[in-house]
Amino acid sequence: MLYLYVFITVILINCAYLFLFLRFALSKSLNTTNKQNTLPVSVLVYVKNNAQHLENNLNAIIEQDYPNFELILINDDSSDESLEILEAFQLKYANFPILLSNVYGNETFWGSKKYALTLGIKRAKNEYLLFTDANCKPTSNQWIQEMAAGFQNNEHVVLGYSNYKKQKGFFNLILRFDTLLNAVHYLSFAYAKMTYMGVGKNLAYTSNVYYENRGFISHVKLPVGDDDLFVNEVATKKNTSLVWNKEAHIEIEPLKKWEDWLELRKNRAWTFRRYKTKHKVILGIYFLSSFLFWLGTIGAFFFLDWKIATGLIIFRLLLQYFSMGILAKKLNAKRLIIHLPWLELALMFLQLRTAIYYITKPANNWR
Q1: For position 367, what pLDDT does the model report?
Q2: Is the pTM of this model over 0.90?
Q3: Suppose 150 and one of 13, 65, 241, 361 were both cysteines; which one would form an S-S bond, judging by CB atoms 3.0 to 4.6 Å apart?
Q4: Domain limits for position 300
């Protein structure tokens, strides 16, 4: 009987989060029909050894249907042909406001992305800043228009959505699924006025909120966190908006190696340490309840009547399919949902690996 009560409690806790996701899933998109929006925007593109797709992705930005934006290209000491491509691109569009910030390695800041972004931000002439990376491409020519609309009610932070380009193979599948789940989490919590992070591949904020926060100074020694840690610090219940319309999506060139993805997950563990305590508790409970649900599912068929066990498990899975299905469609990734729940199980083991890394790795030692 005790097992039944514990298992029900775990499911109820886990379902509370799924209902939170469902609340966001059933919400209406931001109204961006006001095409008179002409806020002056500075688009900042971070470049680090991205020569292969650089010109194609920049063309997608320069061709945006938006009347009032400048383009700031930040070359962070690239060792490939990125700088040459950027210089040629600048010459090609000599009549367009394009600024090129060429950053060389700086030992004081460990050549970090934050140092490069800081230099780029200081060159921006507009208050409204829109960020992406050189390995990213807007999926429509309305990207700037849609993201700029996020500022229409005097918000200072705008969270967008990005995911990896679809390719064949299991690695690409789990990469896109993981990114989708991450987006579902941070967008759903932000919709519930509990913003805890954003992703710099599609993120906007005002220069005022940047300078009021003294930029990235509180975590400048950490090589990562220019996006999620910054948003974790500056976002409030009233100053943040979400833009998830299909026209505002960003497509990312996929990673090729498992090692690169595992490195990203390790970085998440490092930035997670610096989140506000309430966010760490909320996210920790979600992971723990999900893990205990799957663990408890195994034991349920040994310690509970199979009819009761089946009913409880089906209820939780149906709620998950319903909420995640709507969200995946909203985020233009509905085909990923057919792979529930086995992809969730695979990610659960990887999250457990990340959690062990978080617990065992000394907090004061990055490497």
Answers
A1: 42
A2: yes
A3: 241
A4: 2-25+277-357
